[in-house]
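Lab manual, section 2.4: Encoding a predicted structure.

Procedure: take the sequence of the chain (178 residues), apply the prediction step described in section 2.3, and record the output as structure tokens. A sample record is shown.
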Amino acid sequence: MIIGYARVSTADQNLDAQITALTEAGAERIFADKISGAKRSRPELDRLLDQLRPDDVVLVTKYDRLARSLVDLLDIVAQIETVQAGFRSLAEDIDTTTPAGRLIFHVFASIAQFERERIRERTMEGLKAARAKGRVGGRPPALSADQKAEVLRLKSEGRAMKDIANLFKVSLATVKRV
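Recorded output:
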């Protein structure tokens, strides 16, 4: 079965052109969302993925209707492939139901993986350089060393941890960690 998926970002946008294109391309059933592509959980997409069977084909007019980024697209297509279904995009001429289409798709996947790894390398290099300059990442401590010592002293005197947390204007969890 060819299953279409259409999406627009806002409720006031129109799905008609996508639905017409999907129908003309042979979609027997169409799921449609009116929700931002930035949201990973989309009700109709989730229903579509739950109902997929082997040999079904998910059809979209453009891949950006299915996913906001290539990484997101790869994740969704991987879900589609786990049930032995295929994916087709009309605009980009991607079709994972053919050997050539799978090749093209996997070339895209390899490029995306390479780019993710390069971003990670650059991030790690930047963090290393910052540490070498004495910068430490992360959230600053809620309590200074002197304040921590005072928390311990108050606790040893029998003060309730909740009262100590209120006194220092920090969470109870922060006091418990001390």
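Check your result against the sample. The first helix runs from residue 16 to 24.
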